[in-house]
Amino acid sequence: MREVRAAQAVLEAVRAASAVDPHATPDEPLLDDLEALLEARRRLDGHLVRLLQSAHSRDVTADLRGKNTKWWLIAEQRLAGADASRLMKVATALPARPAIADALAEGHISVDHAAPIVATVAKLHPQDKDLSEKILVEASHGLDPDLIRRLCVKTLDAAAAGESAEERRERVHGSRYLNLLDTWQGMTRIEGMLTAEQGASLRAVLEPLAQHLGPEDDRSGVQRRADALAALAGAALGFDNLLPDFNGEQPHVNAVMQYAPLLDALRPFADKPVTDDGGFTINGTEVSPATARMLACDAQVIPVVMRGDSEVLDIGRASRVWPRAIRKALQLEDNGCGWPGCRLPLWACRIHHLAWWERDHGPTSKHNGVHLCRFHHWLVHNKPWMIWRNEAGLIEVARGRISRT
Fold it and tell me: Does pLDDT of 385 surpass 50?
């Protein structure tokens, strides 16, 4: 309660200060207020990460809000994903990094200082961590975060000066990464870092696919490389034994549309022109029937015609294993984790029996199934959270109540 009262007192003080017109404040007091507020901001950030560390270690947000700490910061506190990640990386490092924790608590450094120090110390040899942490924290008292980031890079370079060739190869290999990020325009942004060997292999494969194809090819070089990468992925999809099973079945492209546009898109000699009439998706992305026709020439397209139930999607208590028909139906319906507000995709999920198969004797049926990500699946099995499908067929969740399934 003391922590809550302290936070509320700070909030009240900020509200009172906000009521004062800064344009009516003389120069000296105005500058004094700015300096005091900036120090208070650093101290508040230091206290914030301490609270986050405590909440994270005790699963507070999962228990009370149904979200892990980072996702709670994004979904309920409206922080940007990068800001939430930075806060959580610093918060979770505090127990092992006392110099950083003390400097944050005293307001000597900000989270922007602490984040690169935490990342740098984590990459150092165990015997160098504590000393390097103290040196970087002390340097942060007089430097801005940009200079600290540069100093962190130099620290890593110096630490690597005495490493063997094998140690350097392992360090470089460990720094590889690849991110695929969805944009608001419906595109996917790719960013990453490959080893020299991986980069050479990728270039060797892409260059033949990215060549200029003639005078009608008006694509730029970067566009050709993008198309080449997509072509490479499409080629991989053609090898059934190359890709892992998805919930027990090889991956395919699923097309969902009305019956008439489906026939128009896939009939080699359509009686009427194919038109972009909407309502047509492939793996959740809206495309035109014409695009589907092109894909059908190169990929294994499984048409799912939405014209009423074509199969009995219920096997009762015969087995807890989800058969293909139910898996397909739930994949098309869920599009990802079924927990309200969760955005994780299907590949990160598994199907959960809403009424548990063993404990509640729930059936293996479409109505009793929902895709859940690893975290939310863990939540319903380990915390007082219930999940059920309401009379309208929508998923609902609540904490500390009896399931309605």
Answer: yes
Q: What is d(CA 137, CA 121) in angstroms, rounded to the nearest whole number?
A: 11
Between 211 and 246, whose confidence is greater? 211
Cα 385–chain centre separation: 23
Q: What's the rounded Cα separation, in Å, for the pair 113 and 85?
A: 15
Q: What is the mean pLDDT of residues 55-72?
A: 92
| Surface-to-core class of residue 123, CB atoms within 10 Å of its CB (0-12 exposed, 13-18 middle, 19+ buried) | middle
pTM as predicted: 0.59
Looking at residue 262, its pLDDT comes to 54
Kindly indicate the confidence band of residue 40, based on its pLDDT and cuts at 50, 70 and 90: confident
Q: Which two tokens stand for residue 339?
A: 């927990």
* Relative orientation angle of helices 289-298 and 259-266, to the nearest 10 degrees: 50
> Concatenated DSSP letters for 51-98?
HHHHHHHTTHHHHHHSS-HHHHHHHTT---HHHHHHHHHHHHHGGG-H
Residue 371 structure tokens: 């895709």
- How buried is 205 (Cβ within 10 angstroms: 0-12 exposed, 13-18 middle, 19+ buried)? middle
Instruction: Check pLDDT > 50 for residue 305.
Output: no
Tokens of 173: 């290999």
| Residue 250 clears pLDDT 50, i.e. is over it | no
3-state SS, residue 295: helix
Instruction: Return d(Cα 405, Cα 403) in angstroms, integer.
Output: 6
Q: Identify the band that residue 235 occupies on the pLDDT scale cut at 50, 70 and 90.
A: low
**Could you give the CA distance from residue 135 to residue 113 in angstroms, rounded to a whole number?**
13
Any long-range contacts for 394-401 (C-beta under 8 Å, 24+ apart)? 395/338, 395/339, 395/340, 395/370, 396/340, 397/66, 397/339, 397/340, 399/63, 399/64, 399/66
